[in-house]
């Protein structure tokens, strides 16, 4: 019986050590599980991002490319002013580029929505003002206050028939979901149409 306290002490130590090791193993398992979960989430996020990039690239490939990076925008706008005066219309400069999916979406939206196309065709001369690494049209953009720097692309500059800037429109307020709102776009076109 004299060895009894030592046996209890030894047994207690063994039990504590076992629990401590068990806890360490459990913590290690938890850390491994957290790490595995993080890798799965990261992998899923990367996969989702890649899928979105592919979908956007496929969509962009299908859309018409209305911007001409070879064109002299300054000369072209001067021609459009003469046409606008003759037809008593305002001019819309849709600034952006063929690299910009939202620019291409807007163009497609207007061209394929009869209600909008009619308003544009009756009231405006429409021009796609290119901004791209190949041709930034810096002189033209500076003339209109560099609206792309403030609003991003697309951005719209409305000119009267004499070529005077009368409005700059941020496209973000015209968006709805993954596209544009027909009501907001129509209101924008109607508001800046030439007054009778």
Detail the topology: elements first, then pairings.
Layout: H1 4-62, H2 73-87, E1 90-96, H3 101-112, H4 114-123, E2 124-130, H5 138-143, H6 147-151, E3 155-159, E4 165-170, E5 175-176, E6 179-180, H7 182-191
Helix pairs in contact: 3-4, 4-7
List keywords for this structure.
single chain; 196 residues; alpha+beta; 4-stranded mixed β-sheet; two-stranded antiparallel ribbon; 6 strands; elongated
Give a structural overview.
The protein is built from 7 helices and 6 strands. The protein is α+β, with helices and mostly antiparallel strands and 196 residues long. α3 crosses α4 and α4 packs parallel to α7. The chain is elongated, with a radius of gyration of 32 Å.
| Class per helix and strand makeup | alpha+beta
Largest sheet properties = 4 strands, mixed
Mean pLDDT: 88
Number of helices: 7
- In the sheet with the most strands, the strands line up as 2-1-3-4
User: Would you list the SSEs in sequence order as H and E?
Assistant: HHEHHEHHEEEEH
Low-confidence parts lasting 5 or more residues at pLDDT below 50? none
Number of beta-strand segments: 6
What's the gist of this structure?
The chain has helices at residues 4-62, 73-87, 101-112, 114-123, 138-143, 147-151, 182-191; strands spanning 90-96, 124-130, 155-159, 165-170, 175-176, 179-180. By secondary structure, it is of the alpha+beta class.
């Amino acid at each position: 019986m004299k060895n009894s306290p030592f046996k209890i002490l030894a047994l207690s130590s063994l039990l504590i050590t076992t629990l401590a090791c068990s806890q360490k193993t459990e913590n290690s398992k938890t850390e491994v599980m957290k790490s595995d979960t993080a890798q799965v989430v990261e992998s899923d996020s990367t996969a989702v991002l890649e899928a979105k990039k592919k979908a956007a690239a496929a969509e962009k490939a299908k859309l018409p490319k209305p911007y001409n990076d070879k064109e002299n925008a300054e000369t072209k706008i001067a021609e459009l002013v003469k046409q606008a005066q003759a037809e008593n219309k305002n001019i819309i400069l849709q600034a952006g580029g063929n690299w910009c999916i939202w620019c291409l979406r807007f163009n497609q939206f207007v061209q394929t929505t009869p209600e909008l196309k009619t308003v544009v065709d009756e009231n405006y001369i429409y021009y796609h003002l290119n901004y791209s690494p190949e041709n930034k049209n810096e002189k033209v953009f500076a003339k209109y206050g560099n609206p792309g720097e403030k609003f991003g692309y697309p951005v719209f500059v409305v000119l009267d028939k004499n070529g005077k800037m009368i409005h700059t429109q941020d496209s973000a307020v015209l968006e709805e979901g993954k596209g544009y709102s027909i009501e907001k776009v129509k209101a924008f076109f109607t508001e800046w149409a030439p007054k009778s």
